[in-house]
Amino acid sequence: MSTSIRKVRTSDLELKDRLVAIKRVTKVTKGGRTFSFSAIVVVGDENGIVGYGLGKANEVTTAISKGIEDAKKNLVKVPIFNGTIPHEQSAKYSGARVFIKPASHGTGVKAGGAMRAVLESVGVTDVLAKSKGSSNPHNLVKATMGALLELRDAYTVAQHRGVSLKKVFNG
Fold it and tell me: pLDDT tens digit string along 19-28?
């Protein structure tokens, strides 16, 4: 199944950023070890728009700000209804596998770590999520974004099938 990526303009959005993970990386040179930092950041307006970015620099604050700038360049629109997702979805990126499922109002975001940051940034308030396999934050963020990009609302399904919205629900 092919998914269409829905790009978004950043001009009039109020984006909130969340730092998912930061790690110190080392480059061994002739003169010894050189330390730098790698940060993965998720930004979103908590209303269906989310993006992630990676920043690398010699200082933590610079790495985070580079990650935020990168995330703002990769924003996408995700269908959200009544604080949850339209249907269950699974996705895989490298060794990380994720499964997200809609939940009733009041459930909250039942997800851990990197998945929670992405789901809260997109504006989901009620969802059940499970990560299997690798717990690498980079791969978890990419797998979660992949699952969110594959979500389709009823209107999109009706348009794709060439039928009315009523026909989608009544079979």
Answer: 999 999 999 9
